[in-house]
Amino acid sequence: MSEEENKQETESPAEETAPEEAPAEEPAAEEPAAEEPAAEEAPAEEPASEDAAAEEPADEPAPAPVAAAEPAEVVHPKQLRKRERSRHEGEPQPPRTPEERAAERDQRRAKKATARRARRIAERGKRTPGTGTPPAERPPGPQKVRQGTVVSDKADKTITVKIEIVRRHPVYEKVVRRTATIQVHDESNDANAGDVVRVVETRPLSRTKRWRLDEILERAR
């Protein structure tokens, strides 16, 4: 029994030493494990770049609405009509000649004109007629009256009268006298050359006559 105990005792230290050696070998196995986190960290950085790339497009679309709004303002009416025709979902019309298209266009225009005319007539019927602005009262102004001497009575129903105009000069304050001749209408040919007459302004009676004879003040001697 003593030999068996000795054998067990000799074996037990071997077993005890075996576990002691195992921890010495573990660091060699742990080295790849220490490298694995480094390999795992590399893909961990990729999502960060993806997030940054995802954030960049989010900032870029901001000017997109401005670029889309600018062409909308410059679109030509023909382009708008083409877009409306392209969105048409009904059955396509058969091919037509230019004359047929012109006739259809005239028909559409006539129909619109009839509807427009009817609408305007209806609107006029709804409106109440206004009185408008009353005409301004313009009383006749005072007629000009002049006194002069008959120079000529040769024409029929017309005499030439010379009138003297006396006015004070606005700057030099000197009395200035000047004469003027006018054509006067004499309906009955009463005035003669040398008579002193009084004439009154009237409506235009001819190309040169704007005066008529009012009274003969003094006959020529």
How is the quaternary structure best described?
single chain
- Tally of extended strands? 5
Outline type: rod-shaped
Low-pLDDT windows of residues: 12-54
Tally of helical runs: 4
Determine and state the CATH class of the domain at 145-218: Mainly Beta
Helix fraction? 40-55%
CATH 2nd-level architecture of the domain at 145-218: Beta Barrel
Order of helices and strands: HHHHEEEEE
Can you describe this structure?
- Strands 1-2-3-5-4 form a 5-stranded mixed beta barrel.
- β2 and β3 form a beta hairpin.
- The N and C termini lie far apart (200 Å).
- The chain is 49% helix and 21% strand.
- The protein is α+β, with helices and mostly antiparallel strands and 221 residues long.
- Among the domains are: 1-53; 145-218, Nucleic acid-binding proteins (OB fold (Dihydrolipoamide Acetyltransferase, E2P)).
- Residues 12-54 have low confidence and may be disordered.
TL;DR of this structure?
This protein has helices at 2-59, 64-74, 77-86, 98-126; strands at residues 145-152, 158-168, 175-185, 196-201, 209-218. It is an alpha+beta fold and 221 residues long. The longest helix has 58 residues, at 2-59.
Could you outline the blueprint of secondary structure elements for this entry?
Blueprint: H1 2-59, H2 64-74, H3 77-86, H4 98-126, E1 145-152, E2 158-168, E3 175-185, E4 196-201, E5 209-218
Parallel strand pairs: 3-5
Antiparallel strand pairs: 1-2, 1-4, 2-3, 4-5
Distinctive features:
alpha+beta; 4 helices; OB fold (Dihydrolipoamide Acetyltransferase, E2P); 49% helix; single chain; 221 residues; rod-shaped; five-stranded mixed barrel
